[in-house]
Amino acid sequence: MTVPSGRRERKKAATRQKIADTALRLFLERGYDAVGIREVAAEADVAVTTLFSHFASKEALVFEQDEDFEQRLTQAVTGRAPHEPLIPALHHEIQALVRHCTADSAAPIWRMIDESPALRKYEESMRLRHAETLATAIADDPALSQTATASRTIARFVIDAYSLAREAADPEAAVDEIFQMIEAAWEATCPSRRA
């Protein structure tokens, strides 16, 4: 039966979200370094083991949408319609993510991240992982016919576009400007696609 399985998955997702929301609230109220894992678990009314079954580390609590972000980028590659160009699909996805992460409500979170060496280090490792996942999706697409080096380079550019735009005075304009350069780099690796 799919109903119990669906119910179980919904309950699991709700517990995960409750833990993440509780952690973020506590971190913003008292400071990231001042709050321990046990405090988050107690406030969320879950066991520490339950918390760790949803999040691998304290840092992961801040980046609770990490997996979603990675999946959305991969889907921008693998979910394209046949003959749909890659770079516009990635541009669209990064633009949406930048809009989400530059909303006024996100500013305190990014200040907290910028002030914490542990969170900055975690974010950097997360970006490298996202770039590798994206590079694999690009390289695995037979319609794109890219070398591993070209795939990794474009993937890094895309991930860096997100980070650079988030810090710009006009994030959406920055994404557009950066993607013009990414498009040019992509076209340089695909001379047969030039019109």
UniProtKB/TrEMBL annotation:
Transcription regulation keyword on record: yes
Top-rank lineage group of the source organism: Bacteria
Keyword Cell wall biogenesis/degradation: no
DNA-binding region per Swiss-Prot/TrEMBL record: 36-55
HTH tetR-type domain mapped to chain residues: 13-73
Pfam short name (any one): TetR_N
Keyword terms, alphabetized: DNA-binding, Transcription, Transcription regulation
Protein name (Swiss-Prot/TrEMBL): Helix-turn-helix domain-containing protein
Organism, as annotated: Streptomyces griseoloalbus
Classification of source organism: Bacteria, Bacillati, Actinomycetota, Actinomycetes, Kitasatosporales
